[in-house]
Amino acid sequence: MSILYRKNRIFYFLLLCPALLLYGFALLVPLFGGTFPYSFLKWNLMSGKKSFTGISNYVRLFSDSGFRSAFLFNLKLGLFTIIGSNIFAFVLAYFLNENIRAKGIVRSLFFIPNIISAVLVAFIWTFIFAQVLPGVAKIMGIDWLANISWFGTPQMASLTIIIVSIWQNVGFLMMIYTAGLQTIPTDIVEAARMDGCKGIRMIRYIQMPLLMPTFTINLFVSISGAFKAFDIPNAMTAGGPYGSTMPVAMDIYQEAFVKYNMGYGAAKSVVLFLTVAAITVLQLYVTRKREVEY
């Protein structure tokens, strides 16, 4: 049995090799062959001049208020987006997993935002916040809603980006939760119902423990997506007002390709990569320990 197990592991590893090679070439080679070495340089992309500065780019990050503000916004965006999108996605998947009419069509409708361009999504929601909501509020006589400046203050601009990000992510996460719910053996569910376990108790004590592998995947996807946020904040607010909605990815873009400080931008990229790697490794460790077998 052990020999057969080892042979199967080798066979499956060989099947993964092409994908691993492509992944390594596309991500690891640029990271360790370009971004990481460049982070120790003072490199003006416009003039092309390069000079070795050691860790001065990393030391500079501690006094960079713009990077600190972008990092804090990313943490806030990630916290609300990860929690909100996973809660809404699970609730939708749970109810759409029941025997209801046209549930396939409803699932498709919720999945559509995920396949639409993020820039188009941003333009649609900008129109909704700037034109549709004030117009509807005036018709209904809701003055406080009609007078809200959705993009005029840092708090409201952040709220709009959080709402749109959750709306776009829910459909994809919902499909993964739906697949996870459908893999739970029906005999376990039926046995629990016969023992009087129903409703919230069924979700808490039966379905959620068995869905931990699905939670692991969705949290991993949510965390990586939140820290890579760029398209929606860039198209909706361009980082404003006063840079309050600028995520780290946009700050890196501004530094490297607008201000042409490629070396300093590379240092910011390395810090972002290490932060996301540390958070995802911790998340995988915590959630994998809570997974159960059936």
Provide a descriptive summary of the structure in words.
With 294 residues, this protein is mainly α. The protein has one domain: MetI-like (MetI-like fold, Orthogonal Bundle). The chain has helices spanning 2-38, 56-61, 65-96, 103-115, 118-140, 143-146, 154-183, 186-194, 200-210, 212-227, 231-236, 248-258, 262-289; strands at residues 41-43, 50-52. A two-stranded antiparallel sheet has the order 1-2. Strand 1 and strand 2 (50-52) form a beta hairpin. The longest helix has 37 residues, at 2-38. The radius of gyration is 23 Å and the shape is flat. It starts with a helix and ends in a 5-residue tail after the last helix. The model has no long low-confidence stretch (mean pLDDT 86).
Task: Indicate the topology.
Layout: H1 2-38, E1 41-43, E2 50-52, H2 56-61, H3 65-96, H4 103-115, H5 118-140, H6 143-146, H7 154-183, H8 186-194, H9 200-210, H10 212-227, H11 231-236, H12 248-258, H13 262-289
Antiparallel strand pairs: 1-2
Secondary structural class: mainly alpha
Strand order of the largest sheet: 1-2
Largest sheet: 2 strands, antiparallel
Q: What is the CATH level 1 assignment? A: Mainly Alpha
What's the CATH architecture? Answer: Orthogonal Bundle
Number of separate structural domains? 1
% residues in beta strands: under 5%
The Rg value, from CA coordinates, equals: 23 Å
Percent of residues in helices: over 70%
The low-pLDDT segments are none
Question: Termini, distance in Å?
Answer: 21 Å
Q: Provide the CATH topology.
A: MetI-like fold
Query: Total number of helical segments?
Result: 13
Counting DSSP E segments of at least 2 residues, the number of strands comes to 2
Tell me, rounded to a whole number, the average pLDDT.
86
Q: How do the SSEs run, as a string of H and E? A: HEEHHHHHHHHHHHH
Rough shape? Answer: flat
CATH level-four homologous superfamily name? MetI-like
Keywords: Cell membrane, Membrane, Transmembrane, Transmembrane helix, Transport
GO biological process, one term: transmembrane transport
InterPro entries: ABC_transporter_permease (IPR051393), MetI-like (IPR000515), MetI-like_sf (IPR035906)
Pfam family, one: BPD_transp_1
